[in-house]
Amino acid sequence: SVEPVTAPRVATTESIRLGLVEKLAYAVGKDPEHATLQDWSVALGLLVRDHVVDHWFAATRAGYSKHGKRVYYLSMEFLIGRLLNDAIANLQIEAPIIEALGELGLELKDLLGQESDAALGNGGLGRLAACFLDSMSRLAIPAYGYGIRYEHGLFRQRFHDGWQIEEAEDWLVSGHVWEFERPEVKYTIKFGGHISFDGQGQTHWHAEQTVLAVAYDTPITGWKGAHVNTLRLWSSKPTEILDLRRFNSGDYLNAAEKLIRAETISRVLYPDDTTAEGKELRLKQEFFFTSASLQDLLRRFLTEFSDLKLLPDHVSIQMNDTHPAIAVAELMRLLADEHRLPFIEAFEITRKCLSYTNHTLLPEALERWHVGLFRKVLPRHMQIIEWIDYHHLAEVQGKGLPVSLDAIRIIDHGAEIRMGNLAFIGSKRVNGVSALHTELMKQTVFSEFHKIYPDRIVNQTNGITPRRWLYECNPPLRNLLIEAIGTEWIGNLEKIDAATAFATDASFKEKFAAAKRQNKLRLAAEIKARLGITVDPSALFDVQIKRIHEYKRQLMNILETIALYHAIRRTPGAEWTPRVKIFGGKAAPGYHIAKRIIKLANDVAKVINNDPIVGDRLKVAFLPNYNVSLAEIIIPAADLSEQISTAGMEASGTGNMKLALNGALTIGTLDGANVEIGERVGPDNIYIFGLTAADVADIRIHGYDPRPTIEGDPVLAEVMRSLVSGEFSSDDNGRYHGISDVLYSGDYFLVTADFQAYFQRQRDADRDFRDSSRWTERAILNTTKVGWFSSDRTIRGYAKDVWNVPVA
Ligand code: 26Q
After folding, report:
1. CA 323 to ligand 1 center in whole angstroms
2. For the complex shown, is ipTM > 0.95?
3. What EC designation does it have (predicted)?
4. How far is the CA of 727 from the centre of ligand 1 (A)?
């Protein structure tokens, strides 16, 4: 018999050094003399991967999950970023690695920088999925992440003359060492065609197109390697490699057509993070990975059990937004058509296995599919959805509750399929991602459902993994915390509160400020390298990093920047708090206003940064290609965190949590998780301003006229004039007339309504920052009071309220 690996290997300086040289030779094919940094980075990745694999096997063999319940997290997006440092940190093998590299004349940080950033997500939703994987491993929950192995992740952003240019992203070209291809794990996925019923009660789907979904597995190491889960991503492949008949007849291009059609499905991530456009390929992607995942988990279940009625005892499936909501119909199809269960039983089982997380209330972001397109791509699912809709409506009518049936129909006016309603009806639990958002879900989009199913909607406030978002990205602060309170907080972030006692300790304060300064110097160097802008590291670093959206109101931040600029120019000799405005974020390629807001920020930056009157009092830096790796540099260096969305519109936010944990004070509206952050850090340690969600709802009912607000505020009025005068667009005076028009005519996101309160709070921050000792105390309290926002806490909540699984 073959002896399996039994215990994880131990990392010593010696073993790492020898292992590295061996990997470099036999896996990379280079000798040390000719190896590039990239070669060394791959060698190190492969070596660390061996350590990960040991733990992976150990975890599986420990039998933790024997006949237990498994969690399946279905997500179109996993924004994982780089994995090398994450694995090193979780396995606690940094010291021997640094030492071994030193002996070879190499520096760890240089090798880490070579790894490509896996950007298989747009923003918050995708990054949340990645943090959840980390926490599920931390808590030893037997879980699988399921998604798509996009060949091209989110586009790379660069600026040309200040305008956003998108370029294809290519994360796989330089070799991704973390995945294992599983060519034997593959499923057939069907599209289109028609349905027939035979006399024996069997349903047949005669597909127009079939492709294969092939599995690629990435191990996800939990804290201290105690548990390792699997992220399984599906890649689409043709069912037959080549059409030989066509090829032999000389028709080379058409012979390759099927291959291209099949591989297109997992080719590229949709770069839109709101507007749910009804694109056929998007629907195919959604069905592709959902079907493969469900087939895979059913196969796994059936190797252990035979009675599908037991499925809900052993399987919990989480739908990350409605993107995998087709799971409701697909699980029913698999149970009924493939495994011959009666529809009604299939429906019962389905509703006990699935749960749905909602991430938005914006009506334009709720997925809908035209019935015609849907029937063309998924003819059987159309029938099943008609059955569910009819059956569900009858069920509700039977209860005699006073609800609007129109609001709960899946098929709206016979024309469109509402995926949110499908997900809701097919789920055991439906959750929002912050207390406010969940409350609004109950009152708005799902109010009718909430009347019928008062226990179904629950809240699970988002969280972030403290491993990546403090331990890994902020070594100076990490080391200080370990010195002060030990290491328990890393695996149990609520323990970070123990450091609250040091908030007024002079020596701790000094070291905390020094750590912040070190991080600011690192960011300043990055700004210099990427933009050529010199910034003063003792200035207030004011950070807004997130996707560009009107509701997130980067525009309000820019208008405030202009107002501050005008004020500085008017009295340069006054007492100014030097500020650096730092922006990062991508706009969806088709979102024209968002792209113009980027151009405005860059235009404003150019004028301000080159105005000698202003000097170091104000600088503006829009860093291109904001991604996970850049976030890891910006966040530890921030003093002020901009969370200024129109109240009621940001479901939660998670950047707000990362920035607070790293000692930035928040300036923000009472929106999403800002509300809960404020409750924990206290009103003195956060700058809250502006309209509340209730105010916004009220204004929207009564109508809002921006003109008197603008004209009544000389500061804002002057800013508005500068937009149309060409002060920031001397090469094209008309460039910002459109933006001005948007603000004058309706201003849906209420930028002008909140401007004055925002401007005032910024001046409060200016004043407070000058008392650096007091500011440091408040920054410390932000770090020590937000331990609750660990994704470990979030996952404990899902485990208890949604999945019903035990945790470590
Ligand atoms: C849908 C259909 C077609 C194409 C794209 C999409 C699509 C893709 C991504 C729709 C939405 C998204 C992403 C949404 C998102 O990131 N939402 C954010 O989720 C975070 C985690 O819960 C919250 O913190 C943010 O408040 C929320 O905006």
Report:
1. 10
2. yes
3. 2.4.1.1
4. 35
